[in-house]
Design the sequence.
């Protein structure tokens, strides 16, 4: 009897572990606001990536980039319809995007503009891992 109880306990723990792993790997649904704002962030990043990495972006353009990203991040924060459990994933993603864009504009403290655009790019690469967006295209 003890052997059966132990086997059931192990099987239950394995099943629970698999369920937790599945939940961690699951993608959150996306709505139109999230998809369109993320597409706008992706486009702005693609349009400006080379200028930043080759140190040819004029300061006014860097500020304009950061402002455009901030508008889209705000649009997501105020209008995206995601499950409450998805909010921590989304907030972390948006924080990296916003702070990276601020660094591009020279307002990132110790973070250089190049590191800032890389932070935005890395966040955009994480987006399809956590959010189910059938329209999403990778940066490259």
Sequence:
């Amino acid at each position: 009897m003890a052997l059966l109880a132990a086997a059931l306990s192990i099987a239950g723990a394995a099943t629970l572990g698999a369920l937790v792993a599945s939940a961690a790997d699951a993608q959150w649904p996306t709505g139109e606001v999230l998809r369109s704002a993320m597409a706008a962030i992706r486009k702005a990043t693609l349009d400006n990536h080379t200028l930043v990495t080759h140190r040819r972006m004029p300061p006014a353009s860097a500020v304009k980039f950061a402002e455009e990203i901030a508008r889209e991040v705000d649009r997501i924060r105020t209008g995206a319809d995601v499950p409450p459990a998805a909010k921590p994933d989304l907030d972390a993603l948006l924080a990296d995007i916003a702070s990276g864009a601020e660094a591009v504009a020279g307002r990132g403290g110790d973070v250089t503009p190049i590191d800032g655009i890389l932070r935005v790019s890395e966040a955009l690469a994480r987006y399809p891992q956590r959010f189910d967006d059938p329209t999403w295209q990778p940066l490259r």
